[in-house]
């Protein structure tokens, strides 16, 4: 994508952003339903057969929401890089990010070498 039309890249990022916003809305609705179910249930979690299930589901949903919000931030940052003319350039070493990596992860900030060396979970 580094040599492609910026409009095409913006379209790809916009589509991924829309999908992520939709996912966040769905996850938020599911989390609200779990929280409501928890509020309606007995407060005695130790003896409630559904208590741990609801707690685990709530934990999974919260984690998925957090990951989705991070993804949204990354997609927004990628759009800024397109406008600035730095999209497709590794933020660490300055090398071009491989086309295949950008196709798989349009919000990628790092080339594959830098991403594999770092411990951070950033694209």
From TrEMBL:
Alphabetically ordered keywords of this record: Metal-binding, Zinc, Zinc-finger
Signal sequence, start to end: none
UniProt protein name: Conjugal transfer protein TraR
Transmembrane segments: none
Record-linked PANTHER family: RNA POLYMERASE-BINDING TRANSCRIPTION FACTOR DKSA, RNA POLYMERASE-BINDING TRANSCRIPTION FACTOR DKSA-RELATED
Keyword Manganese: no
Renumbered residue ranges of the record's region Disordered: 36-56
Zinc finger (dksA C4-type): 90-114
Superkingdom per UniProt: Bacteria
GO molecular function: zinc ion binding
Organism field: Gordonia mangrovi
Domain Zinc finger DksA/TraR C4-type: start-end pairs: 85-117
Transmembrane is among the record's keywords: no
């Amino acid at each position: 994508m580094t040599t492609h039309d910026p409009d095409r890249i913006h379209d790809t990022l916009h589509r991924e952003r829309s999908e992520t916003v939709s996912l966040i809305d769905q996850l938020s609705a599911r989390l609200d339903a779990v929280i409501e179910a928890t509020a309606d249930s007995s407060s005695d979690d130790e003896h409630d057969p559904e208590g741990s299930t609801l707690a685990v589901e709530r934990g999974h949903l919260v984690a998925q929401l957090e990951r989705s919000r991070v993804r949204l931030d990354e997609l927004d940052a990628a759009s800024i890089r397109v406008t600035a003319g730095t999209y497709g350039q590794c933020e660490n070493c300055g090398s071009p990010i491989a086309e295949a990596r950008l196709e798989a992860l349009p919000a990628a900030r790092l080339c594959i070498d830098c991403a594999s060396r770092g411990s951070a979970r950033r694209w």
